[in-house]
Each structure stands twice: as C-alpha cells, then as structure tokens.
Amino acid sequence: MLSKQQIKRYRAAEPITELGKIFKKHRTDKFSFHRYDRVYEWLLSDFRFRTDIRLLEIGVQGGGSLRAWEEYLPYAEIVGLDKNPRAADLRFSRAQVLTGNSANSELLRSLGQFDIIIDDGDHGPISQMQVFCDLWPSARQLYVIEDLNFSRDNTTTKQIAELAVLNTKSRGADHAAEYWIIFANELLAFKRVPQ
Ligand SMILES: C[S@@+](CC[C@H](N)C(=O)[O-])C[C@H]1O[C@@H](n2cnc3c(N)ncnc32)[C@H](O)[C@@H]1O
After folding, report:
1. Helices and strands in the chain: count of H runs, count of E runs
2. Which atom of ligand 1 is nearest to the CA of 27?
3. Taking Cα atoms as reference points, which of 135, 124, 133, 165 lies closest to residue 55?
4. Residue-by-residue pLDDT tens, the chain, 195 positions
5. In a 10 Å sphere around its CB, with 0-12 CB exposed, 13-18 middle and 19+ buried, how is residue 51 labelled?
6. 67 found inside a domain
7. How far is the centre of ligand 1, averaged over its atoms, from the C-alpha of 22 (Å)?
8. 122, 130, 186: which to mutate for ligand 1, most atoms within 8 A of CB?
9. Distance 64 CA to ligand 1 centre (A)
10. Nearest alpha carbon to residue 102 among 116, 89, 119, 86
11. Does residue 8 belong to any structural domain of this protein?
C-alpha cells in the first residue's frame, strides 16, 4: 500500500488542469492533496458556461471552493451551507451562504432543486448517507460526496454507494436512470442520466 507521502508525490506529478489552477488560486483543499480538479474538470466541463445552473455545496469553511465555483461556472447560481455561523460573514461576488446543519433533513429539503450538489461537510459515512437520502431527490444532474477516505469506520466507498442507492430506493426514489463514479476511492459522484 502506498504511503500518504507517496500518493501526494504521484498526484503532484499529474498535469495541472485549468480547474486545478482555479482551485489553487482560491486555496481549496480540493487541489492540495486530493487533486479533485482531475475529476471535477471531467464532471463539470459541460456545465461551464451555462446560465441555468444551480450549485449547492455543503461545507464552506474559508470560502475557497465557492470562489472557485464562481470563477469556473461564471453564470451559475452558487449556494453554500455551513453549520459554522462564521461562514455567513464571508464575502463573495455571487455566492450566497446559508447557515445550518446538514443533519437537519427539513432544512435540506427546503432548499429547492439544484443541478449540482456537493457534500464536503461532515465526512462521516452515516451523515453522508443521510444527506444523500435527503438531497438526491433535489439533485437534477449530479451529486458528489467528497473525502470518503475520512470515513470514521471501515466502510468502503463502493459500500457507501450501494447503501446510498438502496436507502433511497427503499424510500421510493427512482434510481433506474443513474450510475456512480468512484475517484481514487475518495470521491463518489452520482449522475442522473437524461430521460
Ligand atoms: C472540508 S471543510 C469545507 C471546505 C470547502 N468546501 C473548500 O473546499 O474550500 C468542511 C466544512 O464543513 C462544515 N461542516 C461540517 N459538518 C457540517 C454539517 N453537519 N453541516 C454543515 N456544515 C458542516 C465545517 O464547518 C467546515 O467549514
């Protein structure tokens, strides 16, 4: 098994994407260790200059990723949700920040529909599953869960994907038309295929 240092070295050697430069500029950890630019560039390039896109990210912290989305998706509506009230004091050119806990299912369901939903908040598998079950019906096109490597038990990424699908199915959600992508055992993306 590769050490964290080895993984970091291999990843650093990967060519930097345009989105990677944007992540780096805005100092989100989506670039530093994870190199999520490689998967996000692929997942999001079709949305790039669209004017009808709504994006929700759970987990704002210093605002780096919301600023990166503002730059990469210049016409999209960007919404961030964080349980830390200090996130609401951050200033953005377009993004709107809401304060709240993603454990609050009622709050999540009241946020409306989004084309892209990203869960970069609480990185525990139980929370990731609950948030997915609450928000999958609100995801029009893409749902991403980041940092599954931080999971506090031995659940694998594939098990989380399978359980998430089973859980939402048992609640009556239509899963017939979606598939998932696993990136480096750390990021899970569910895509809804157009009918
Ligand atoms: C990894 S940071 C987000 C980083 C940011 N997305 C970026 O890439 O620059 C995680 C954030 O999620 C927030 N958070 C953790 N658990 C949460 C929860 N249950 N509900 C809402 N926000 C949560 C934390 O307050 C923290 O600001």
Report:
1. 8, 7
2. 9
3. 135
4. 678 788 788 888 888 999 999 999 999 999 988 899 999 999 999 999 999 999 999 999 999 999 999 999 999 999 999 999 999 999 999 999 999 999 999 999 999 999 999 999 998 888 888 999 899 889 999 999 998 876 555 666 777 777 777 666 666 665 544 566 777 778 888 888 655
5. exposed
6. yes
7. 20
8. 122
9. 11
10. 119
11. no
**Residue 83 falls within a domain, yes or no?**
yes
Which domain, by its residues, includes 145? 51-192
User: Could you tell me if the CB of 121 is within 6 A of ligand 1?
Assistant: yes
Give the number of the atom of ligand 1 that is nearest the alpha carbon of residue 26: 9
Question: Nearest CA to 140 among 111, 107, 101, 103?
Answer: 111
C-beta of 104 in contact with ligand 1 (< 6 A): no
Indicate whether 92 belongs to any domain: yes
- Overall domain count for the chain: 1
Q: Is the CB of 65 under 6 A from ligand 1?
A: yes
How far does residue 89's CA lie from ligand 1's centre (Å)? 15
Domain at 186, CATH number: 3.40.50.150
